[in-house]
Please model this.
Amino acid sequence: MIARAGELLHVDALHKSYGAIRAVDGVSFRVGAGEIVGVIGPNGSGKTTLFNCILGQIGPTSGRVTLAGDDITSMSPLELARRGVGRTFQTLQVFGQLSVRDNLIVAAQEFESTLPRRLFARPDAGLTARADEMIERFRLKPVAQLHAGRLSYGQQKLIDIAMAFMPRPRLVLLDEPCAGVNPSLVETLRELLAELNRVQGGSFVVIEHNMDFIMRLCPHVICMVEGKVLAEGPPQAVQSNRAVLEAYLGN
Model:
């Protein structure tokens, strides 16, 4: 499939069924290069299953996913990561016994050059400067040498997200980045993601229940209900959509 000009991700009629249950039911959408897309919907609407299908954690029942025109349907997470696709999970994926800096270095080492070159490279694979740049950007400099497991949940969340961006991916899917985060840190997260989008120019797809966060971060929003796309468009239009209000907000 040839990508449209400026298109990075195309999800086309994606289905995932478990017997009679249609967890993802014919979902289609596009993400342009450098675009931030938000995905909202009540619990059980299929958002995380959609991510898992796109990212190779589970195989879709039918449908297709393309990245810059290349078919990536059912590729493994490692293959996708090597093509510049990253993700965060609802649960933390940090290494508690490693320092903050080493967590970031480990997150990018796999994608630096060939295996033989990595075997004979410096222990940090030449990534310390990049890690320090991310530490500075994510406001983690005071704790850079500490074991990640000693830090607060909010600080570990920042490390987790910074790790996803260490390999300089062109597409990142973030699954509930605000979950469990102190409200005072939510605005910091929004500012960091907006800054990363400006600086690195990558595309993001963000699942989140925090409506204010999504509406302020994402120029384009998709609402899923019962595995289907109920509405999509600019945040204000989706937020005021009567079907969304009834299905998602309970009005």
Residues 70 and 249 are 37 Å apart (CA to CA). Residues 183-200 form the longest helix (18 residues). The chain has ten helices and ten strands. Strands lie at 7-18, 21-32, 36-40, 62-67, 70-71, 85-88, 171-175, 203-207, 220-225, 228-233.
